Every structure is written in C-alpha cells, then in structure tokens.
Amino acid sequence: MDWQELRKTYPRDPDLPARAQALAALARVREGTQYDAIPNPFGTEYNGAGEYIPLACRRPSVRTNMCRAVVDDAVSLVFGASHWPATGAHDPAVPGILAQVATETALPALMTDAATRGSIGSVAVLVEAVDRRLRMQVHDTIYLTPQWDACGELSSVTERYKVPGHVLAAQGWPIGAEEAAAVFWWQRVWDRADCHVYVPCRVDAGPPARVDAARGTHHGLGFVPWVWMANLAAPGVVDGPCTFAPAIDTVIECDYLLSQSGRGLKYSADPRLVIRAGPDPYADGTPAATGGAASALTLPLDGDAKLLEINGDAADAMRAHYRELRASVMEQIHGNRAQADSLAAPTSGRAMEMLYQPLLWLADRMRLSYGEYGLLALYRMVCRFSHVLHGGLRIGGVDHAGLDPAGLALQWPPYFPGTEAELAQLAQGLDTAVRGGFVSRQTACAIFAARAGAPSPHAEWARIGTENPA
Predict the structure, then answer these.
(1) CA-CA distance, 259 to 183, in Å (whole number)?
(2) What is the pLDDT of residues 254-285, one digit of tens each?
C-alpha cells in the first residue's frame, strides 16, 4: 500500500475544498492515526466468510511514526528550552518587555505547538486582548482562508466549518427541535476593523450570507489580529510544503515490513506443526500428544512432521531492509541519521553540528518560517496593540503604551553549546583579532557570548561597561 491508496480509505467531505482534504490527510500522518480507517487488525488473516484478507487491507501492528519524530526533533532545535531566541531592538527596554509577554502568554510552548501543527503546510495564531492583557491561540488552517492585499499585508481571515444544529441551539441560536439533527455552516470573518459573525445556515442552502450584528465585534485595531505562518515558505503563501510528505510512502512500507516481521517471529516462537501421514496411527482411540519432549508423536513408517517457521537469515534480511528504508526516510526529510550507539564519547559542539547537519538544515529553514516570519511578526503585533489600546497593554502589572518595534530582531543561540576547550580557543582567537584591529571589542563580545549560549549576546557588552567603567 502507498500513500495514494491509503488516502482512499479516509472519509471525504464533498462540501470542503481539496486543500482542506489534503491537510486533514496529512494531519493524520502527523498524529500517527493514518491507519485508523482500516477496519481489519494485522493479526486477522480471514474474515467471517473465510476469505483471505490481503495485507493492504489490515492495520499495521507496528507504527514507527518517523514523520512525527523528525518534526519533533527539528522543533526542539528551534524552540526548545535551551534554544529559545532572545530579542534585540533599538529601544533597550523593548526586549525585556517582550520577554515578559512571552512568559505571561506561555509563548515558547505556543510556538512549539504552532511549529509542530504547521508541519503539514501552515498554521495561524489568533491574538486577542482581554482587559488589556494579551491572549494567543494556535489554530489549524484546515477551515481558515486568508486574503492579502497588494502590499502583502493580511487583509482578512475567514473561518468556516460544519456544526450540528443541537450545538448551535445550546449556544442560544434559534434552532428548532426539527433541525437539531441537521448540519449547519458556522462562519466568522476577521478584517482590519471588525470580526463578523454570520447567521448559521444549513449546509444544503449554501454558505452563510447574512451577518449577525449582535454577535460580531468591532475591534478597530486597524490590522487583522492573525499571524499566518506557511511551513518552509515565505510570507504571503497560504500553504508551504509539508515537512514529511516525501517520506510517507517509505514510512508505510516500514510499518508493514516490521508488522510482517513481528508476525513471523511470533510464529517462530509458536510454529505450526504439519503432519503428513498414511494410515491413522491413532485409530485405536489414543489421542494425539502435543508439546514437550516427553510426549512425542507416533507416526507410521511413511509419515512425516515439519515445523513451519522463519529462519534467522530471513529475519536478518528484514532488519537490513528496514535500516535501508529508515535511512531513505531520513535522507528525504532531512532527519537525524546518526545512531546513538555510535557515539562512544562526548563530542564537541562543532562535531555535534556536523553529525546532525541535515537536521540542522531543516531547523534553519524552520527558524525563518516560524521565527523571522512568525515569532517576530507576533512581537511586532504586540507593539501595535500597545499603540491602539487605550491605556496600552498591561504586562507584568505595568501599563506599556507606544512600544517601538524599530530594529526588532531575533538572536538565536547555538544549536549545541561549545566545550570548554572550544570556548578557550575562540576567546584566544578573538583576543588576537581585537589586538590586530580586525574586529571591535563589542563585536568580539557578541560573538563569544552567542557561542557560550548567553541569553542576550548584545546585552553582554552593556553589562561589561557597567561592571568595568572606563
């Protein structure tokens, strides 16, 4: 079975666009539920009518989920606890304020979730202000449709999905008892000034067309409070390429191979006995003895008995084939091809970077999609909120108004911290460069602080000036 055949087992909603169907299918792979629509377990060989069930019609008993593993590894290198980027700005007070915002809104966890869910193509974050405090939510984009203006700025976001009638009735919509089992369209549209809530209508009546003025909201922000992030793509694109799509076919092959291999090993542990005999040796009524050396089988002179089991050569061949398939998967989606048992001793940061180079290339691209075009866009939106809200934003119990986003930039830490020997060698080299006039002391300080993993490399120079005044 390949990816095209597996997708045919998924239920399809004819009212949703092809984009939503494709994203929903990829989301199944990301969550490891891509085989749940297959009704037959792998250990069932025959159905109730005695007909043989092909392997492609059975759910694999082993799910490697290598696609999600690669995504989790790359996301950890981008937004992990020791990889969260610091900020820099022309206003020295802005980075500290934004760091407080990240703490209050659990932004590291939110961006980790966004980068993981966006691996299928895109993800969006809704930013709202409640009592002048920010609230951020990650949304899948299956039911979202964005629009950009000629300048590349988001002009509107439409959310539309199906809701049962009884759910709408519980929310206070005038849905009669005869329509409680019907299915309705629910739709909201955000633009630069309002959030329009449409009156739900039955699916067979077409998309909603009438706005409910009482349920809508006039935010008056002057911008759409959404940040759209396309996976591994530039801003202004609805969906980027899926991180793991090229390897799905090979992962399916691995799952079925390991499932069949495990099935064979189980049969080897309890092999099937086949007896070829002439006249019945138990015609006198003596029962056939099975199991153990003390209860041997008695066969006629022309009889024979064999055990059907897999031998060691076949098992080794399956394992070798799986290793080749895994290497192919990791090569296709830039995963980690290093084996943990091959690291006999601690290695330097530079050696670790070379060892994990393909995964780091993927993380570099994700730093652009979810860092420069995602996290930085969220920070700039926080500054815009501080300009339009009366009284500013309340951050850490203090009101902040008119935050200046000029010069706002992310400062990424190294993927792997350097060893003491590497840091000493770097310090000696930078000292030589400063004495020779090749770099300034401030630049050398920023380079060394970044390599050492300081939270804010550029702020180290200010601390040095405070601790060692001229």
Answers:
(1) 40
(2) 999 999 888 777 776 666 666 666 555 555 55
Closest CA to 256 of 28, 4, 6: 6
333, 244 Cβ separation under 8 angstroms: yes
- Domain C-terminal end among 12, 38, 60: 60
Instruction: Please report whether residue 452 resides in a domain.
Output: yes
CA atoms within 13 A on the CB side of 157: 26
Amino acid letter, 309: E
Number of domains forming the structure of the chain:
2
Query: Using CA atoms, how far apart are residues 267 and 269, in angstroms rounded to an integer?
Result: 5
Closest among 8, 38, 15 to 255, alpha carbons compared: 38
- Separation CA 30–CA 245 (nearest Å): 10
What pLDDT shows up at residue 283?
55
CA separation for the pair 335, 122 (Å, rounded): 20
pLDDT at residue 105 greater than cutoff 90: yes
- Count the helix, strand and coil residues of the chain and give each as a percent rounded to the nearest 5: 45, 20, 40
Q: Which amino acid is at 248?
A: I
Residue 381's closest CA among 405, 412, 417, 398? 405
Nearby residues of 304 by Cβ (< 8 Å), 6 or more positions away? 275, 276, 277
The per-residue DSSP string of 101-141 comes to: HHHHTTHHHHHHHHHHHGGGSEEEEEEEEETTEEEEEEE-S
pTM: 0.83
DSSP class of residue 290?
-
Q: CB neighbours (10 Å) of residue 395?
A: 23
The C-alpha atoms of residue 78 and residue 112 are separated, in whole angstroms, by 8
Domain assignment present for residue 450? The answer is yes
Q: pLDDT band at 299, cuts 50/70/90?
A: low
| Domain limits for position 53 | 3-60
The answer to whether the beta carbons of residues 160 and 145 sit under 8 Å apart is yes
Q: Are 223 and 378 in contact (CB under 8 A)?
A: no
- The CA distance from 442 to 24, in Å, is 50
Give the residue among 378, 387, 386 at the shortest CA–CA distance from 85: 378
Asked whether residue 305 is assigned to any structural domain, the reply reads no
* Distance between CA atoms of residues 382 and 379, nearest Å: 5
Predicted confidence (pLDDT) per residue in 194-215, tens digit: 999 999 999 988 889 899 988 9
Residue 46 lies in a domain: yes
Which residues are CB-contacts of 71 (< 8 A; sequence separation ≥ 6)?
A: 30, 116, 119, 243, 244
